[in-house]
Amino acid sequence: MLLRHIGDYPIVSNLGPTTDELWHAGHRDRNFYTYGNMGLCSSIALGMAVSTDEKVVSLDGDGSMLMNLGTISTIGREQPRNLVVVVWDNEQWAQTGHQSSHTAFGTDLEQIAQSCSIPRTATVNNLEDLEAVFCEALEQDGPWFIVAKIEETEYMPVAPIEPEMTLYRFRKTFGA
Ligand SMILES: Cc1ncc(C[n+]2csc(CCOP(=O)(O)OP(=O)(O)O)c2C)c(N)n1
Ligand SMILES: [Mg+2]
């Protein structure tokens, strides 16, 4: 659904299932797939956002975001108007054994974003609301912080990705 709306804007995807699903949903040179670097998806997207005028979309995970909450604070400090963070919040560190994360015990990532002065935030619980807020985020200035509550489903096969090629393909789309 997100790919239907995103046009040519770059996406940074969190390690594991998020990256695998993005690859299966629609491989494109402007997908910056990450593997292994837990907690850095939105940090990388932030770095991109301050380097380009284009919208930059981060598809992060609750567990990864919890491991690097300082990213939210830095987004609030830098106020990149073109950054859109979507956190897939399944309330678990799912891929390493479905351990419940802090969002299952009262931590509200949207409230954290608000308290870090991120001006545009939302929490959505269904696809329709996600689509509406995501389209708004692509149109209007942010930074945006969207928490998408999700349920775990079966994993797709691991995507055949080589980090060096991801970097090479991605950079080329910026003419570097
Ligand atoms: C520094 C570091 N610690 C631990 C791991 C192992 N690890 C990989 S993914 C993951 C859980 C990520 O949770 P979340 O971002 O919520 O994504 P989900 O698995 O729920 O899709 C963990 C603990 C890692 N890759 N790097
Ligand atoms: Mg998770």
TrEMBL record:
Keywords per UniProt: Decarboxylase, Lyase
Superkingdom assignment: Eukaryota
Location of the Thiamine pyrophosphate enzyme TPP-binding domain: 31-147
GO molecular-function terms, A-Z: carboxy-lyase activity; thiamine pyrophosphate binding
InterPro entries with a match to the protein in the record: THDP-binding, TPP_dependent_decarboxylase, TPP_enzyme_TPP-bd
PANTHER family: SULFOPYRUVATE DECARBOXYLASE, SULFOPYRUVATE DECARBOXYLASE SUBUNIT ALPHA
Name the record gives this protein: Sulfopyruvate decarboxylase subunit beta
Organism: Geodia barretti (Barrett's horny sponge)
